[in-house]
Amino acid sequence: xxxxxxxxxxxxxxxxxxxxxxxxxxxxxxxxxxxxxxxxxxxxxxxxxxxxxxxxxxxxxxxxxxxxxxxxxxxxxxxxxxxxxxxxxxxxxxxxxxxxxxxxxxxxxxxxxxxxxxxxxxxxxxxxxxxxxxxxxxxxxxxxxxxxxxxxxxxxxxxxxxxxxxxxxxxxxxxxxxxxxxxxxxxxxxxxxxxxxxxxxxxxxxxxxxxxxxxxx
Length: 217
Ligand code: FES
Prior knowledge:
Blueprint: H1 2-12, E1 28-35, E2 55-58, E3 65-70, E4 93-97, E5 111-112, E6 114-117, E7 132-135, E8 140-143, E9 149-152, E10 161-167, E11 172-179, H2 184-190, E12 205-206, H3 207-210, E13 213-214
Parallel strand pairs: 5-13
Antiparallel strand pairs: 1-11, 2-3, 2-12, 3-4, 6-7, 7-8, 8-9, 10-11
Bound molecules: FE2/S2 (inorganic) cluster (FES).
């Protein structure tokens, strides 16, 4: 059923982006500041993240998934970029919405069309390039080390980045908003999902544990 909705949503998604999707790329929108939590509910520590492992949590709505990644090395914004770069002790932790800006494909419990190509992995849709977030629905690719910019179409808009905050004293991670063009209005129009803003600590799971199958393309 979920897979059928995914396909239906992709077809329906041929329409133009909604008002939310046309938001300026650098614009930040605040949502409730919430601590990220481990699966058991304890606060998530940055040190618990395995480099280049894709994690999923739901934010800013209880039904909108995000990807959390520790890219293993300092991630700095390009000069003049409104995107702030990575957080954490090495400034290596980033997060993005996992709702594809092309036609809103996203991970669910059964299947994730979106995955992260870790160093050394190969994905036929992006050739020799790795360290990318790839949506296998139609082969869009995004650079998580560059604010989620598009590196391969058909997506035209970058992934909206999650505004992460890191507490040096506790090594805790918080989500506090989004920056960039999100398309949640179109997502909610295409999929029958709960539209409630997250107010409690979202649980962070490995993507491969959350979805029964993660696409490789
Ligand atoms: S939904 Fe088309 S590339 Fe992601």
